[in-house]
TrEMBL record:
Enzyme Commission number: 2.7.7.108
Name of this chain's protein: protein adenylyltransferase
Nucleotide-binding is among the record's keywords: yes
The keyword Signal is assigned to this record: no
GO molecular function: AMPylase activity; ATP binding
Protein's organism: Sphingomonas aurantiaca
Reactions this protein catalyses: L-tyrosyl-[protein] + ATP = O-(5'-adenylyl)-L-tyrosyl-[protein] + diphosphate; L-threonyl-[protein] + ATP = 3-O-(5'-adenylyl)-L-threonyl-[protein] + diphosphate
Annotated Fido domain residues: 20-158
The entry's keywords: ATP-binding, Nucleotide-binding, Nucleotidyltransferase, Transferase
Matches recorded under Pfam families: Fic
């Protein structure tokens, strides 16, 4: 009698859910990498950098991670948001985690699984395998160096399981987003400086994005022609793209272009106005030589911060200089720094220095402390002594008569 063995049925592994908190995020990392690293799930203890800019300094990792996830918790885990707004906030959230970079290794995979869980719980599921790896790396690098999260938003939205409204970008030279092809705009053209262009975009672009998304939904719902829907998708991608109109205005400024000619009227909606400005920017971009564009794009994407700095530390240093001493003392992140300044001022007063000299020593110490925050250096009392020695002039020697 021949015995036949049946293979054991395969059961899908139960989907684990991790709390949307800092500890939950660490638990996710431990679950993914516990077989590889003894320190899986633990914050890194060494500083790391990429492209000449450092990720969050070790003493700030836990605090910044707690703050970031507290913000997500206050927004109910990003639940209940329209699709476009959800992916916009998710892209920003993932970019901020990337800037913190809490683990020595495995940050990218942990971020992708975390993004997938947030998206699933919010009703906008994404497929991790559909995330374009090259686009992910480019968006991560661009977001870290510039703070612009729109590239990451586009990558995550592009991996959505339901892609009815997914924008399809029309890419021009050097990866620049372009509007749908159309006939030249009709009407009176007005000359606009690029600084005026940026003012207009800051005012109208947020509303234009929402109008573009609403327009696309309406066209799909009404069964509009395929070509019309495709153009609407391209337009939505343009107004949301990391290399869309705002980026293009900075690019043209770098190339020495001072103004564009756009068809602008008072009756235009925000989307119509941004559309005309975008068309004007496109005319100037298409007039540039490809090699010049490539060089300008590479220059703009270089780290804006010098080596040893990171965007988070730069913002903290700016906040320290902007705040009053009372605000700095009330902020746990800045209180130790303000204490150094207060001690230097007190020492100068106790020594009997003039009011003007006390003020000079205080300002000098504040600047030295801010520079130390930017580079992630230790905050110690030696900073105050250095500024004190620099501010107090050496005694002048009287020359003896000959």
């Amino acid at each position: 009698m021949r015995l036949r063995f049946r293979p054991k049925p395969r059961y899908s592994r139960p989907r684990l859910t991790f709390p949307a908190s800092a500890d939950g995020y660490r638990a996710l990392h431990k679950h993914l990498f516990q077989d590889l690293y003894e320190w899986a799930g633990q914050d890194r203890t060494v500083d790391t950098a990429k492209g000449g800019a450092r990720f969050a300094h070790v003493p700030y990792i836990a605090r910044e991670l707690d703050k970031l996830f507290a913000d997500v918790g206050a927004k109910n885990g990003l639940r209940g948001l329209p699709r476009d707004e959800f992916f916009d906030r998710l892209g920003n959230h993932i970019n901020e985690i990337n800037a913190i970079h809490p683990f020595r290794e495995g940050n990218g995979r942990t971020m992708r699984h975390h993004a997938a869980q947030l998206a699933r719980d919010a009703g906008h599921p994404i497929r991790i395998a559909s995330i374009d790896k090259t686009a992910w790396m480019d968006a991560s690098r661009h977001g870290f160096l510039t703070g612009d999260h729109r590239g990451m938003t586009a990558v995550l939205a592009g991996a959505a399981i339901r892609r009815d409204l997914a924008p399809e970008a029309r890419i021009g030279p050097a990866g620049i987003a372009m509007l749908p092809q159309r006939a030249p705009p009709e009407g009176q053209r007005y000359r606009m400086t690029l600084s005026k262009v940026r003012e207009e975009l800051e005012r109208y672009l947020p509303a234009a994005r929402q109008q573009a998304a609403d327009r696309l939904r309406g066209l799909i719902k009404d069964g509009a022609p395929t070509a019309t829907i495709a153009n609407a998708r391209t337009e939505l991608a343009y107004v949301r793209h990391a290399k869309g109109p705002v980026y293009q205005s900075h690019l043209l400024t770098y190339l020495g272009v001072r103004q564009v000619d756009a068809v602008i009227t008072k009756e235009q909606s925000p989307l119509e106005r941004v559309r005309e400005i975008g068309a004007a920017l496109g005319v100037q971009i298409n007039a540039q030589q490809s090699a010049q564009l490539q060089r300008a794009v590479r220059s703009l994407e270089r780290p804006a911060l010098p080596p040893g700095h990171s965007p988070g530390q730069e913002r903290l240093a700016e906040l320290f200089l902007k705040n009053t001493p009372e605000k700095n003392n009330a902020d746990p992140r800045l209180a130790p720094a303000q204490a150094i300044v207060d001690a230097a001022i007190k020492t100068a007063r106790d020594r009997g220095e003039s009011v003007r000299m006390v003020s000079t020593i205080g300002d000098s110490t504040r600047q030295l402390v801010a520079d130390r925050i930017r580079t992630g250096g230790a905050l110690d009392a030696e900073i105050g002594r250095v500024s004190d020695r620099a501010a107090v002039p050496p005694p002048q020697r009287k020359e003896r008569g000959r």
